[in-house]
Write a structure and sequence with these properties.
This protein is mainly beta. The protein is elongated and about 70 Å long. The chain has three helices and 17 strands.
Length: about 260
Amino acid sequence: MSGVFYVFLKWSSKNDTFASTYGRYMLLLNSRYDADELFRAMQSLQTGNGKGLLFPELTRQSPQFWCYDSPEGWKSVGAFQDENRLPEFRNTLSSILLNDRGSREWPIIANLVTGPDWVSGGDFFIRNRRQPNLYWNVHDTHIRTSVQRRTKFRIQKTKVEGEREPVIMIRKDTVTIQAIPETVTSAAVAAGSIYVSAEGPGGRLVLSPVEMKWVFGGLVNKNVGVRWEDEKNTREESLATKPFLVLMLNGGGDEWELV
């Protein structure tokens, strides 16, 4: 998921009559992943004198529209970049100031993101980025791809003490995946088997009562792929080739997104 990803950032001061005019930025990053990692970094960024948060108010209306306030004023967004307070983003972040009402035209963004924000604990469908009509679907206890059916999953980040809300999931996070019982058959979640796990040497994804820890970046990018395998139909005593989701730690998987 690379290219150019845009975020609008709006100053939302409650104590300044110019909040509707100044402090409007457009940020440019390589991907949604980079943007979410920037948001996480901005949540913990300190003021220049180290006496508090630079952005005590930092909210998300959507993945591409954020609002902020700062004790350093609306210029704080440009200032932390000029002063290189987040050196890890020095070559992955660019911004343009859109603060002069009436004197600068707003750009038209072509790659608008649709779908929910990737907040920890949210409920999502998981689909293929290259083939968006292909979804994860629980069949019995195994997980396959399907263009006709889909299962909803709850994805939860491992909690960290003192972490600010909202907790946006980024690539390095450890997460668990649970099937939402209402979206699968009762047999599939028997005995509390709701966690997505990898089974045996073949790495088939299955529902299990024991949670498995996933790295979010690997989950959505190249650690999960499709393997077509023969499955016996016991009633008809015949073989059918089915698409099973499997763990591919050597990078043989595909790219997935949460919707």
